[in-house]
């Protein structure tokens, strides 16, 4: 029986007394012993390593099988590991998914699989029944074709959502600039790679890696060692071992100097900043705990960190700035970042680099060190509340070749760290002059201020190199010409002047958490400037946005809210029927801004200023049709599939992307009515 020794942790407590001297820190309470616990480890003849933790406090039992595959390069099939578990978990050769799940639900159990694991948990009285199901799944997975197709479709839907997430885009580009697209830590999951995945890829992964000689079985819960050994031998003893060829891990090259990787999102009102680079920080190394403590001071532990106190509390640039210093037996990264307002992007960068310079050139304070140590000790103590912690510690020790007393002496290691130790690791690991900076934001507003920090390279949302979006190509055309061509393209001014009302119905869907929420959208317009956008969301009710001759409001949940100031401008923009005919008469300011590629085609850009808001329109160079309108916080509207209705070209497909919704909304028009009567009361 192996044992993780008894250790002590000092807790600071505040005593409640009649007279409290608030000028003094409270005295520490007496040390309280914390027992990590015992575990037993053994190996079957086929190479399966077993870690057993007995705990009879609750009548529950868990079985976790982990495969030490090492990093895996998926190449042009990137994404297959993400769907592997969903497909493998969908039943066995003798038991289809619905029957398999019914058996699990009857016992109140849980069984699942992943690309590197199989997991089961239940009440301990069902141990044999659960092992029957778990090993049936392990040895005889069904891999049903319908589940594979479902997983592919869900992954593609998720990718569409992530394309519009600045944080997801930053993460993609960060991986590529730190490791490269050919590296397992840098390759990207794209629509193309997901569509390349076949069922044979999943089965090949299973055949290659699901071997006992690279597996660890962690058993935690209400079972005696003698019974556990008997069950494990019975259920896993005949599992045949096999040769597993792991990839050679290639260490990444560190940047020689700081540079900027920029992704342009014209609709962004904030910039996502990520300052990162690879580091070699193996668990159990001399530096690992020191770096963890350093990160708690710098930006990794709540609102009182240096980054937050500077960028959030002092400067007000962001709601939160943070950092992480990873630890891995392969390769980890340093990362510091925040989302900040466009106008302070360069100023925020100055502060990030200033804090990196400061922590790597001067000692932290006694108070900072004491708080960080207390926080680290508390986190360690809280982790011991989980019955699986002992097993996880034992598994970590095995995978990372840690000494037997590594966790037993963890608190002593924390306590022994000095300010000088932290300065030493900071000098070696915090590298403001050798960082890969990723910024996702509005190029035309923030790029100029970033040039002081290093060379700027431009990427798209899939980390492909693109041209500088701030370099404008001007066409031999004016804003008036573009608007006139658009009016002619959709039917001509004479036809449009005859339109007194326009109404259309459309349907859309929003994907959230793997589920699709249906939306119905009805739009009513009456010349010259009455507008109603009625959106009905299944199970959530109706929302109305109304513009009526200068008055804007929103109705939701029975409440009417006036919309004023800059928030009213998008409704005013949408509310005037075919307003492109007479922007100047409406008092709108508009200016030609050059050409840009939109959805793979060249488009002319016009900036339209309405009151204090500026909206960006794009018109196809060839057809003249409006293909996109960026309405700022109200979202980006993309118009597709123009069709003729009563002599007027109407876009039958509209895609709305906004920071307020988690995924793009795609509306398809089902019905259009022109010049049918609409009562004025609808706009009241």
Short précis:
This protein has about 675 residues and is of the alpha+beta class. Helix 9 packs across helix 15.
Residue stretches low in confidence (pLDDT < 50, at least 5 long) are 3-18
Overall form: globular
Described by strand count, sense and barrel closure, the largest sheet is: 13 strands, antiparallel
Q: What fraction, in percent, of the residue positions are helical?
A: 25-40%
Q: What is the count of helical runs?
A: 19
N- and C-termini, Cα separation: 78 Å
Average pLDDT metric: 91
Cross-sheet strand order for the largest sheet:
19-18-17-16-15-14-26-25-24-23-22-21-20
Structural class: alpha+beta
Beta fraction: 25-35%
The radius of gyration is 30 Å
Total E-strand runs:
26
The protein's oligomeric status is: single chain
Which properties best describe this structure?
globular; 30% strand; 19 helices; alpha+beta; 7-stranded mixed β-sheet; 684 residues; 26 strands; disordered N terminus
Note down, in words, how this protein is organized:
The chain is an alpha+beta fold. It is 30% helix and 30% strand. The protein has 19 helices and 26 strands. Strands 19-18-17-16-15-14-26-25-24-23-22-21-20 form a 13-stranded antiparallel beta sheet. A seven-stranded mixed beta sheet has the order 1-2-3-7-4-6-5, with helices on both faces. A six-stranded mixed beta sheet has the order 10-11-9-12-8-13, sandwiched between helices. The protein starts with a strand and ends in a 10-residue tail after the last strand. The N terminus is likely disordered.
């Amino acid at each position: 029986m192996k044992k993780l020794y008894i250790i002590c942790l000092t807790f600071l407590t505040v005593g409640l007394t009649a007279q409290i001297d608030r000028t003094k820190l409270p005295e520490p309470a007496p040390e309280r012993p914390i027992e990590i616990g015992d575990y037993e480890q053994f190996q079957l003849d086929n190479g399966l390593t077993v870690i057993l933790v007995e705990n009879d406090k609750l009548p529950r039992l868990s079985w976790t099988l982990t495969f030490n595959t090492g990093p895996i390069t998926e190449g042009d099939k990137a994404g297959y590991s993400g769907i592997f578990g969903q497909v493998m978990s969908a039943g066995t050769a003798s038991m289809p998914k619905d029957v398999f799940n019914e058996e699990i639900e009857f016992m109140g159990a849980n069984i699942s699989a992943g690309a590197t694991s199989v997991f089961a948990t239940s009440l301990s009285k069902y141990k044999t029944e659960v092992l029957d199901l778990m090993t049936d799944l392990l040895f005889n997975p069904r891999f049903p074709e319908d589940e594979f197709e479902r997983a592919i479709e869900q992954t593609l839907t998720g990718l569409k959502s992530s394309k519009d997430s600045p944080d997801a885009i930053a993460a993609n580009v960060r991986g590529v600039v730190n490791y490269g697209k050919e590296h397992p830590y840098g390759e990207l999951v794209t629509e193309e790679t997901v569509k390349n995945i076949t069922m044979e890829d999943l089965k090949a992964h299973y055949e290659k890696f699901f071997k006992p000689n690279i597996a660890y079985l962690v058993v935690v819960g209400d079972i005696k060692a003698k019974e556990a050994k008997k069950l494990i031998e019975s259920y896993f003893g005949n599992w045949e071992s096999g040769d597993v060829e792991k990839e050679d891990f290639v260490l990444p090259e560190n940047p020689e100097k700081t540079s900027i990787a920029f992704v342009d999102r014209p609709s962004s009102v904030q910039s996502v900043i990520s300052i990162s680079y690879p580091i070699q920080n193996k668990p159990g190394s001399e530096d690992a705990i020191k770096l963890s403590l350093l990160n708690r001071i710098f930006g990794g532990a709540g609102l009182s960190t240096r980054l937050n106190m500077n960028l959030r509390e002092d400067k007000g640039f962001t709601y939160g700035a943070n950092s992480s210093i990873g630890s891995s037996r392969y390769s980890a990264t340093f990362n510091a970042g925040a989302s900040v307002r466009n106008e302070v992007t360069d100023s925020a960068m100055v502060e990030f680099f200033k804090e990196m310079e400061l922590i790597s050139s001067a000692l932290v304070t006694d108070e900072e060190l004491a708080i960080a140590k207390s926080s680290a000790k508390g986190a360690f103590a809280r982790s011991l509340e989980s019955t699986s912690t002992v097993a996880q510690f034992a598994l970590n020790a095995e995978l990372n070749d840690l000494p037997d007393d590594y966790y037993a002496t963890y608190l002593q290691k924390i306590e022994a760290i000095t300010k000088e130790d932290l300065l030493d690791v900071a000098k070696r690991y915090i590298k403001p002059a050798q960082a890969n900076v990723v910024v996702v934001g509005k190029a035309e507003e923030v790029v100029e201020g970033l040039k002081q920090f290093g060379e700027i390279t431009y990427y798209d949302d899939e980390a492909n190199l693109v041209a500088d979006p701030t370099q404008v190509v001007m066409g031999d055309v004016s804003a008036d010409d573009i608007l006139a061509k658009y009016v002619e393209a959709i039917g001509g001014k004479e036809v449009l002047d005859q339109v007194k009302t326009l109404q259309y119905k459309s349907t859309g869907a929003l994907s959230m958490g793997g589920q699709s929420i249906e939306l119905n959208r009805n739009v009513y317009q009456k010349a010259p400037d009455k507008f109603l956008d009625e959106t009905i969301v299944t199970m959530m009710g109706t929302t109305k946005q109304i513009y009526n001759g200068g008055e804007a409001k929103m109705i939701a949940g029975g409440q009417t809210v006036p919309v004023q100031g800059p928030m009213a401008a998008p409704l005013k923009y949408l509310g005037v029927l075919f307003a492109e005919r007479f922007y100047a008469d409406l008092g709108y300011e508009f200016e030609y801004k050059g050409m840009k590629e939109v959805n793979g085609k060249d488009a002319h850009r016009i900036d339209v200023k309405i009151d204090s808001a500026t909206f960006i329109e794009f018109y196809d160079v060839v057809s003249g049709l409006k293909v996109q309108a960026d309405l700022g916080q109200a979202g980006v509207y993309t118009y597709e599939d123009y069709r003729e209705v009563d002599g007027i070209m109407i876009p039958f497909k509209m895609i709305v992307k906004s920071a307020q919704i988690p995924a793009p909304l795609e509306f398809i028009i089902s019905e259009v009515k022109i010049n049918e009567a609409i009562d004025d009361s609808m706009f009241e």
